[in-house]
Write a structure and sequence with these properties.
The chain is an alpha/beta fold. 36% of the residues lie in helices and 14% in strands. It has 2 domains: 52-164 and 316-410, Rossmann fold, CATH 3.40.50; 166-308 and 416-438, Response regulator (Rossmann fold, 3-Layer(aba) Sandwich), CATH 3.40.50.2300. Strands 6, 7, 8, 9, 10, 11, 12 and 13 form an 8-stranded mixed β-sheet that branches. A 5-stranded parallel β-sheet has the order 2-1-3-4-5. Pfam families: Peripla_BP_6.
């Protein structure tokens, strides 16, 4: 099916005078529109061309990290583009899937994308790259703008990351802390993904001639982090109950995803009175919502240092996304404009839109996964994200020389801090951690 109207199987009867007049008026209007350009909303209405099916997946209602805002943002995006003519006249159909934070769920979501003949998986989150990437590769389905928590997102030839993933956040956080911390404790999940975090953070610390962080492993789905908080404080010289334990020059950075909230609750209770230990995290583990829940300017996150991929949520470059959320999310409280998962989904769909428009300009009416992949690989046009990232393309010459993460094309991060209960830019503009990422790393 192409969506084009079929010719009538029999000729129309002779037109009446009135019908002839209507036809003449219609022809005149068509001539006027062709000369002046079509009226908004009259051309490229969804349904004139084949609909495009994509998938967005993320963990929802699990005991570990959840990202419900990502599929919710994808659905709001689809309502928006379909209300304005679709993607180059193609209606956008977004399928969503809960990967449940396990390998079986991730594989099931990938198979659903295959069965639905999706042209891409867009703006998704899953730790289980080994489970989802193989089905996508076998069927040639590109993975656009994943959150960046699995190695496969930065290794598979069908993956097109829009940020530097966990690697850039941790290396950037290390560089950010190196200027203010003499000793650092890293509290991170005791998982395969967590095992990479100390090396990445230490690479950033080494840029500032600081010693490696003390590695504090903690359960990914813990409900009590008192033990981890004690170990982290002790390592920076602020042991709970210790004489004169203030920990000046010490920093504790926590990257426990959704459980970072629970950790800081334990930290706040165990932190010695008068403690001078600074705290830190990365966007995704902490953000404005967590600052608000923990007391704002009077809470434990006041003064915290955070590293993110994108400009702060109050930056006007996010206004187009906010308008889509306001107009088409219908009050969906899963969508937080300050959530980096929601932001990554917006950017990933911006990439998809650019690709579909480019294919339309080439006269390609039948959009396939292979066509999307080839367009991304060819990189004739860099994707402009409105300044939320550098212009993106994924040609071989655009890949950064990052050990273990060869598909990385964006090595920029932002430094943020909590001041008066609000996340603000701690340094204007982006910070390029490309050289830090490209430097050979050791586990020491």
């Amino acid at each position: 099916m192409t969506g084009r109207r079929r010719p009538s199987p029999r000729p129309f009867p002779r037109a009446s005078a009135a019908a002839t007049a209507v036809t003449a008026c219609t022809a005149a209007l068509a001539s006027l529109l062709s000369a002046c350009g079509s009226l908004p909303g009259t051309a490229g209405e969804p349904g004139e061309k084949e609909p495009l099916t994509v998938m967005t997946w993320a963990p929802v209602d699990t005991k570990a990290t959840n990202m419900p805002g990502m599929p919710a943002m994808a659905q709001a995006y689809a309502r928006w583009v379909n209300a304005h003519g679709g993607l180059d006249g193609h209606q956008l159909k977004v399928l969503t899937c809960n990967d449940r934070n396990d390998s079986v769920g991730a594989a099931r979501c990938a198979q659903r994308a295959v069965d639905a003949k999706a042209i891409a998986v867009v703006g998704s989150y899953s730790q289980f790259g080994r489970s989802f990437i193989s089905p996508l590769e076998i069927h040639g389905i590109p993975y656009i703008g994943g959150y960046g928590v699995s190695d496969e997102e930065f290794a598979s030839p069908l993956s097109y990351p829009v940020n530097g993933g966990q690697a850039s956040l941790l290396a950037g956080n290390g560089r950010q802390l190196a200027s203010v911390c003499e000793r650092v404790s890293l509290v991170r999940p005791d998982t395969l993904q967590g095992d990479q975090m100390p090396t990445l953070l230490n690479t950033g610390l080494a840029d500032g001639s600081r010693a490696a962080a003390h590695d504090v492993r903690a359960p990914e789905d813990g409900t009590d982090y008192d033990d981890a908080a004690r170990r982290a404080l002790d390592a920076v010289g602020a042991a709970p109950g210790g004489p004169g334990a203030q920990g000046a020059g010490g920093c504790v950075t926590a990257t426990l995803g959704e459980r970072t909230d629970t950790f800081f609750d334990s930290f706040r209770r165990l932190q010695p009175a008068g403690s001078k230990v600074r705290i830190a995290s990365v966007l995704g583990s902490a953000g404005q919502a967590l600052v608000d829940r923990t007391g704002g300017r009077s809470g434990p996150l006041e003064g915290a240092y955070l590293t993110g991929w994108y400009p702060v949520a109050s930056d006007p470059r996010w206004n187009p996304m906010r308008k889509v959320i306001n107009d088409h999310a219908f009050g969906d409280n899963r969508i937080d404009p300050a959530d980096p998962g929601v932001q990554t989904t917006w950017i990933a769909y911006t990439v998809l839109r650019s690709v579909i428009e480019e294919l339309g300009e080439q006269g390609t009416d039948e959009i396939t996964a292979q066509a999307v992949q080839q367009t991304l690989d060819r990189g004739d046009r860099a994707v402009d994200t409105g300044g939320l990232t550098p212009k993106l393309r994924w040609r071989s010459g655009d890949m950064l020389a990052v050990p273990d993460f060869p598909r990385t094309v964006n090595g920029l991060v932002t430094y943020q801090a909590v001041r008066d209960g609000r996340l603000v830019a701690a340094k204007q503009g982006f910070v390029d951690v490309t050289r830090t990422l490209e430097r050979p790393r050791s586990d020491g």
